[in-house]
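Box 4.2: Ligand-aware structure prediction
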Amino acid sequence: MRSPGRIARACLSRLASLAADPACPVCRASSAAKPLCEWCSLRLYANEAPHWSGSGAAVLDGIPGDGVAIESAFVHSGAAREMVHLLKFGGRRSLGRVAAGLILASSGERPGRGDLVVPVPLGSDRLRRRGYNQSRLVAAPLARMCGALHVDALRRDDRPPQVGLASEERRANLKGSFRAVRGRVPPGATCWIVDDVATTGATVSEAAEALLDAGAGAVRAITLTYRKLRPGCIIER
Ligand SMILES: [Zn+2]
């Protein structure tokens, strides 16, 4: 049995750790609200309907298509957009766990026990430059929270960045860039691809094709945000 003195010390230690980082992980404002401050929580815009990575240029919203169903928790705007930028370019790695919690709190569908959670990989050059893969930082805690299995089942060739490309160019740029790692996809497994942002769904489509070729039985996708793009539109970072 723990002594009252030991319990008190544990409580003080817990309070001290809370007081040590009272800042919102996005805007860094001092806040007691968790996981984000009230202002940032108000700037999270839920993405209501799932969308599908279709075979055409545009993602189909709310209408089941012939591609992969993508559950994106938030519209690519406000605090969610800032989270993506901080994760990707700001080195704010601890946001991966925060993002995973927010995704699961807002998504209707989630990986089940024993499902595979597969982060979208970076090419080796980009991984070396960045030092980490932001999708992996979200996928690993997300899998833990669901009782699913985080598996780095994909590899990716280095290709020019997608930024600045129109929909059709994005698909052409990604074609055949993913391959599954031998032995990491059990036959018939349900795989959940995890990425930070979905735009046209081209990345998800390519990653799903590699997983299905390796023997996956079903593929779904989860992203933190959905950046809606009209066909032919050029995106900026
Ligand atoms: Zn904030």
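In the box above, the bound molecule is zinc ion. The pocket of zinc ion is lined by residues 24, 26-27, 29, 36-37, 39-40 (CB under 6 Å).
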